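Here is one chain, start to finish.
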Amino acid sequence: MSAKQVGWGERISYGISDTASNLIFQMISIYLMYFYTDVYGLSAGAVATLFLVTRVLDAFADPVMGIIIDKTNSKWGKSRPYFLWLGIPFAVIAMLTFFTPDFGDTGKLVYAYITYTLLGLVYSGINIPITSILPSLTSNSQERTELSSIRMFLALVGMMVVSIGTLPIVNALGGGNQQRGFFYTMVLFGIIGGIFFLITFFNVRERVTTGHDKPVPIRESARAIRGNWPWVVLLISGFLQMGINAMQTQSAIYFWTYNMKKPEMVSVVMGINILALFTLVISSFVAKRIGKRNTSILGSGLMIIGFTVALIGSYQLSESLLLTGLVINALAVGFSMSMGFAMIADTIDYGEWKSGVRAQGLLSAASSFGAKVGMGVGGALSAALLSWANYVPNAAQQAESALNVIRINYLWAPLISAIIGIGLMLCYQLDKKLGIVTEDLDRRRGVNPTDRGDGKGNPHSGTPVSS
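Its structure:
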């Protein structure tokens, strides 16, 4: 195993890129459907179509962005410059997405399509580099797992700020006006996110390359996918997990408002996810002992237990059982969150090992494509089910059909997803081959595996380095 190469300053700077991303992404995931239906005044049916069209369109931008990254040849590297170029535009467009102009029913829908589509496209440009840069930060597989855990830890910090703080901040900044409150809250998160992306740009370095800076042609990049079955497994898993996650997170505010009649619990329930920080901290140590795949399976197994307990609580209207199940689920998330990104980095090495082509942009982006399509399908499905079940925004009492659909979105769907997820992970076999892959790649690059760096981010001689 090659030496560790990334110092703690760079590790933190890398991780806060996902803090920045999640300050905005979680606002979209958790609150945008509610914002559109109950604050902005769009129908649930219109929102369902909006989510499907914009998110699937956005998904097709991901492979394009991956190809652009593979063709990028700047003095800062391939992935790193996009933190500088797109961080501020991403924050500004996010603010506009939560702005509520009075354009009439048709005008408001058109405005939502324009701003949300732009946000999704720029999100591809700023978020894919967070994943694609990882295999360039270090060649050490265990260090990649540690970096992914740090990234997910700091991503979860962003998630927690949004989950716990959004509604109180909306009330404080809006003074009872939710339209104004949501907009100013997004302004606050956007400013912080933009600054964090700039910090990432100035402090991370791409130090692992193939030894040349020539752009990779599209046809050559595609060779890294052929026969890369571990990557295919992660693609399918990402589609499923992100689709169900979209259904579940969007439904939280509906479930606690209408099913449980306790809207004040939304921030509390979202705050439970902070427990994932504990398992995130230990996830890299667990993965070192049992492997990334088995750590992910462990997380899915705990999710099955958690959502089963929560489901029982939902039918019994037992708040204590519901919270117990959600606590178990939060702990489970910490085991599974960081593994996916570390495993994607490993499949990039595997693709290079099999094909001779290092297509980190395309493989990262194509994986993101599956996740984005899943988000589009899941988000649209949850909104469409609400419309089909006769959901009425802001109604004191919802129809029984609407309450059942909300429960399906919030609890049944993630339970089924966790079961399928275990089956998919059982098909992932790369952990067993990774040592051979890493050593062989080091030999091809003419790099001494023990001379990869000093652990402080300073590469030694013999290490391929890009500017």
